[in-house]
């Protein structure tokens, strides 16, 4: 805050009087954000360079020791890489399923001209409004062999033999959770893409129709190109959200991200390290190191998007 | 608007309806499952999970348990107050900062923008230990304000990011005209720019509202007291207490779902209008 003030002072001293309004506009947001978010996070970072001695309980500065442990000690590195890989897979499923379906639903919505439109939109957006407590609970319930709702449903459409306890098998648990997550959040890309489609000016569509570009080819050649920036924003939000994911795994599979850590994501490994659970005592310093690494992973992803992908996206003035 | 009236194709529209209906059913089915089973006897929950309650299987025992045990109206009010206040501050402070960043040139502008955007990438949870310590020293633990502050800080980065994008599209001629007419910078912001970015505000409101309303983590850590418990926390505590009482759990879940549906129904018209108001045809 003070730096900004000084910056302003320095730049303004030569020209105009000090522009107080700029400061007034910025101050509330910068102060709240710095106090509540940045300073506690900085504390986390500082924490990652310390370690508590297990015998003497004295906390002392250890430099990069926690990081070295995380990357080279097999006890740490294996679960960490496992969760990193799972997280990439989780994100990949979102990209492959959520975005195409989001585009499809939005495109269909813009075709439909009946009062039904609003109902569809509300219905598909509904899961997004639910808390993870509800989402985790209901899917666990539906997929559990104990209650057998999903088994009964699959039988009724002739897929009874395909039924597995999806959340209980290592091979299927992560995919199932990814799809549940897509089910939960599909409303957001749907809404954003729908809004983007609506904001395409009529003149553009009319021009396309005059040139004989209609129907499906019109969608792919004209509209899809125009909404690419929106899809880009959705992708980056999905990426950040996925690499911070924790609640869904926690409420469905518990903090151990079972079965056998097959659904372990960076968020769950962080939680376990930080707060501990049955198998290990909490280690806030190691947790802080994982948090810092997570931050750099996300930062790298966002940087790749900003510098390599967003630049290639042509923005059309609409 | 998508397809010109002349060429609108009946068959295509029917197909669209069928597919949309399928998606709507998939989206609503689990919610419906909870709602219908929350009204049944325990036996019926297990034997006919997919059937609507009949006169024999109708049973409101779950709701009775929940309403006797829990303080659900109070929890609901807490959630509503915390979410509402957080949204107000996110939108006000976020819009003000976004305006300053997109409107004025000053040294460190880009840097400050990046600094504010950092928060989009980091879950605020990573700073929980520090936040808790801060709230303890300021004596805000177990107050609504602890949650409101945290949620405001959490929501600001994305709000500023989205609103800056929109604010930069507001025509500078309009603002210059305002300045020539002698409007103060504050009037330009509140009277000219804010009304124009309403669609973006609605978008930000919905995106900030959902995680705040459904958050479990911070209420658990910062405000677990009975008088500040939020609805999500109340429902979760309930699940823990009544592990085998399915009627009670399903009823608690149903009670956690219904208010959100009501809220969304109230706001949805505003939201859609907001999202698409730039595209009034």
Automatic annotation (TrEMBL), chain B:
Residues 76-267 form the ABC transmembrane type-1 domain. Pfam families: BPD_transp_1. It is found in: Cell membrane. It is a multi-pass membrane protein. The chain crosses the membrane at residues 12-36, 75-100, 112-132, 144-167, 188-210, 248-267. Keywords: Cell membrane, Membrane, Transmembrane, Transmembrane helix, Transport. InterPro entries: MetI-like, MetI-like_sf. Belongs to the binding-protein-dependent transport system permease family. This is Carbohydrate ABC transporter permease. The lineage of its organism: Bacteria, Pseudomonadati, Pseudomonadota, Alphaproteobacteria, Hyphomicrobiales.
């Amino acid at each position: 805050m003070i730096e900004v003030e000084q910056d302003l002072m320095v730049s303004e001293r030569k020209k105009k009087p000090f522009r107080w309004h700029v400061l007034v506009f910025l101050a509330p947001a910068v102060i709240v954000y710095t106090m509540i978010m940045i300073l506690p996070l900085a504390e986390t970072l500082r924490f990652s360079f310390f370690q508590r001695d297990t015998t003497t309980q004295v906390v002392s500065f250890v430099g990069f020791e926690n990081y070295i442990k995380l990357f080279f000690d097999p006890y740490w590195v294996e679960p960490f890489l496992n969760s990193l890989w799972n997280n990439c897979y989780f994100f990949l499923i979102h990209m492959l399923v959520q975005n195409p379906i989001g585009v499809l639903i939005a495109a269909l919505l813009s075709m439909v001209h009946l009062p039904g439109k609003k109902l569809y939109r509300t219905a598909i957006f509904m899961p997004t409004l639910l808390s993870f407590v509800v989402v985790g609970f209901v899917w666990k319930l539906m997929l559990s062999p104990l209650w057998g709702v999903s088994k009964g449903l699959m039988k009724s459409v002739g897929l009874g033999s395909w039924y597995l306890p999806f959340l209980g098998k290592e091979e299927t648990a992560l995919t199932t959770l990814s799809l549940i997550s897509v089910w939960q959040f599909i409303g957001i890309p749907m809404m954003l893409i729908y809004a983007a489609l609506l904001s395409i000016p009529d003149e553009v569509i009319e021009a396309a129709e005059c040139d004989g570009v209609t129907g499906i080819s019109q969608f792919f050649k004209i509209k899809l190109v125009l909404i690419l920036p929106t899809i880009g924003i959705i992708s980056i939000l999905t990426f950040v959200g996925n690499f911070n994911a924790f609640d869904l795994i926690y409420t469905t599979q518990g903090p151990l991200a079972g079965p056998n850590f097959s659904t372990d994501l960076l968020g769950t490994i962080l939680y376990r390290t930080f707060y501990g659970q049955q198998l290990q005592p909490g280690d806030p310093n190691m947790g802080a190191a994982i948090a810092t690494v997570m931050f750099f992973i996300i930062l790298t992803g966002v940087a790749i998007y900003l510098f390599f992908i967003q630049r290639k996206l042509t923005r059309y003035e609409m | 608007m998508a397809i010109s009236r002349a060429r609108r194709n009946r068959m295509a529209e029917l197909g669209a309806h069928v597919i949309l209906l399928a998606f709507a059913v998939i989206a609503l089915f689990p919610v419906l499952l909870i709602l219908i089973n929350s009204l049944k006897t325990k036996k019926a929950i297990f034997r006919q999970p997919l059937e609507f309650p009949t006169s024999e299987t109708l049973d409101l025992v779950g709701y009775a348990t929940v309403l006797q045990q829990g303080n659900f109206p109070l929890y609901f009010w807490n959630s509503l107050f915390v979410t509402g206040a957080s949204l107000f501050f996110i939108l006000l402070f976020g819009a003000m900062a976004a305006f300053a960043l997109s409107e004025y040139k000053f040294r460190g502008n880009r840097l400050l923008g990046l600094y504010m955007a950092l928060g989009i990438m980091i879950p605020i949870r990573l700073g929980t230990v520090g936040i808790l310590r801060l709230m303890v020293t300021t004596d805000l633990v177990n107050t609504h304000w602890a949650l409101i502050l945290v949620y405001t800080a959490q929501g600001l980065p994305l709000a500023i990011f989205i609103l800056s994008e929109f604010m930069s599209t507001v025509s500078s001629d309009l603002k210059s005209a305002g300045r020539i007419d002698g409007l103060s910078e504050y009037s330009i912001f509140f009277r000219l720019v804010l009304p124009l970015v309403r669609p973006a505000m609605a978008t930000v409101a919905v995106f900030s509202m959902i995680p705040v309303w459904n958050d479990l983590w911070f209420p658990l850590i910062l405000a677990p007291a009975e008088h500040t418990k939020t609805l999500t926390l109340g429902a979760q505590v309930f699940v823990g207490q009544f592990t085998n009482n399915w009627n009670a759990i399903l009823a608690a879940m149903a009670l956690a779902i219904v208010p959100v549906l009501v809220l969304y129904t109230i706001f949805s018209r505003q939201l859609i209008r907001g999202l698409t108001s730039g595209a009034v045809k």
